[in-house]
Amino acid sequence: MFLTIGTTGTPERPATDLGFLLHKHPDKAQAFSTSHGSAHVFYPEASAERCTAALLLEVDPVALVRRGKGKGRGGAPDAALAQYVNDRPYAASSLLSVAIAAVFKSALGGVCRAMPERAENPLPLRIEVPALPARGGAELVRKLFTPLGWERVEATAVPLDEQFPAWGDSRYVQLVLEGEMRLADALRQLYILLPVLDDAKHYWVAPDEVDKLLRAGEGWLAEHPERPLITRRYLSHRWGLTRQADQALELVRLAESDDLDVGSVDNAVDESTDTEEKPVPLAEHRRTAILDALRAAGASRVLDLGCGQGQLVQALLKDVRFTEIVGVDVSMRALTIASRRLKLDRMGERQAGRVTLRQGSLTYTDKALTGYDAAVLSEVIEHLDLPRLPALEYAVFGAARPGTVVVTTPNVEYNVRWETLPAGHVRHGDHRFEWTRGEFREWAEQVAARHGYTVRYVPVGEDDPEVGPPTQMAVFSRSADAAPGAGSAGRKTHDAENRTTEKTGKKEAEAA
Ligand code: SAH
């Protein structure tokens, strides 16, 4: 069983860095014993320009039979012989997967202390597996790898016997993948997809396989168009486990997507919608509304607070009037995805000079966020526990005090129009609350009053006459005479509860 991983480089960024990323020195050939034989890692080539690591797994068929159930291959009547004489030694399968996990454990986890930045970023990779058993053929191989972003996915059928072309093709393909990919992502994909293509496992699939699937599938599996086939085959068609995995992945998908599927909303709202026309996703309506509000305010230096995976930052970059764009998020993972989406590492200097991504929590004040024209909180407030909201309010309206603040949040009244949403459910697993239009306005009025802002409201998405729009947006403008620091209007209020909220918020926000 054989697999090669190659990359190219330059004198400044030598290809041999691959050795650091794989935690295997290019000058050494190393052997590891695994439960089914021995794995060897060596480098057929290692120069600054090109470096290729090879993983060779020598399977011990006797150990395989002794250790396990010899599952998967060769049923009766010649099962006994098939346990010894089979394709195991040659064909990349779940055994190779297990070897990848054992030999490249740190790389699979994306860990590289020597070169964290190299491990975090995509490399030009070339992966080759000369004999890959593919149930579903070359077609399925392409369906599995193409959506993952590989530029070249080549699956060539291997003939049964080159001497006898008339015998046709074997069920093996030679796989070549090429593209810019993070090494850890590439290894995780192989770890799952090799046994999926083989559609057999050499060991009994226990419930902990669900965790392994979710871990290795992080960041790519939830949204994969072939997800049902992948989970079903990876979990050896064990229905209970497959269902568990699917439910977990569905939650992940919801969390990663901007909102619910807007197609179902359009169907619910307007039966006569022209189905030929692709509906504009709600997230896009939202970005348009936000950009309009920022332009109307004449903003050029903008904070995107809770920027998530950077879709709005990307849209802001397209308009040159936004000269300085800062995306802030508490999630490092979201920021990493944002940075990849924006291709920050490959951006020209001028363009890159306009954008900064920083990690930070919005419930703490941060001096670096003062002095901006505008701040956006798009679909963020509902991710905070209500008691933490005053802290965010103070950090943004009390301390950072941008001229304009745009806040969007779901309108819970609209949820009855989402056909796929069970009654009483929030739209997203991580929403701590969802407000009616009345509740949002009440909060916004108080915030504006406390901090010296005026506020107007803009519906986003179709404004339903009965339940309002799916997204509600408030645009706050700092009043010209508002004192910096605390809102002048806020101090004038006689509402005891308001004052308490402001004080608590301030204390919490500054407790960083
Ligand atoms: N603004 C984006 C993402 C919304 S999802 C959009 O409109 O698509 C909410 C985001 O808020 C997540 O990325 C989450 O990591 C971030 N977030 C939640 N609580 C936060 C906090 N306390 N500080 C900073 N970011 C936070």
Oligomeric form: single chain
Number of helices: 20
**Structural domain tally:** 2
Q: What CATH architecture of the largest domain do you see?
A: 3-Layer(aba) Sandwich
Mean pLDDT: 82
Total beta strand runs: 14
Estimate the global geometry from the Cα principal axes. Answer: elongated
Report on the biggest sheet. Answer: 7 strands, antiparallel
Give the strand line-up of the largest sheet. Answer: 2-3-4-1-5-7-6
State the CATH class of the largest domain: Alpha Beta
CATH superfamily of the largest domain: Vaccinia Virus protein VP39
User: Radius of gyration, rounded?
Assistant: 28 Å
**N-C termini distance:** 54 Å
Strand residue content: 15-25%
Unreliable stretches: 69-79, 258-277, 486-500
Query: CATH fold name of the largest domain, please?
Result: Rossmann fold
Descriptive notes:
The chain is an alpha/beta fold. It has 2 domains: 2-203, c-terminal autoproteolytic domain of nucleoporin nup98 (2-Layer Sandwich); 278-503, Vaccinia Virus protein VP39 (Rossmann fold, 3-Layer(aba) Sandwich), CATH 3.40.50.150. It contains 20 helices and 14 strands. The protein has helices spanning 17-22, 61-67, 79-84, 94-103, 105-108, 116-120, 137-145, 183-198, 208-216, 227-234, 239-256, 262-269, 282-296, 311-317, 332-342, 349-352, 389-400, 437-451, 488-492, 496-510; strands at residues 2-8, 30-34, 37-46, 50-59, 123-133, 152-159, 169-181, 301-305, 324-329, 355-359, 374-378, 404-410, 453-460, 471-478. Strands 2-3-4-1-5-7-6 form a 7-stranded antiparallel β-sheet. A 7-stranded mixed β-sheet has the order 10-9-8-11-12-14-13, sandwiched between helices. α9 (208-216) packs parallel to α11 (239-256) and α10 runs antiparallel to α11 (239-256). It is elongated and about 85 Å long. The protein starts with a strand and ends with a helix. The model is unreliable at 69-79, 258-277 and 486-500 (pLDDT under 50). It binds S-adenosyl-L-homocysteine. S-adenosyl-L-homocysteine binds at residues 258, 306-308, 311, 329-331, 334, 361-363, 378-380, 383-384.
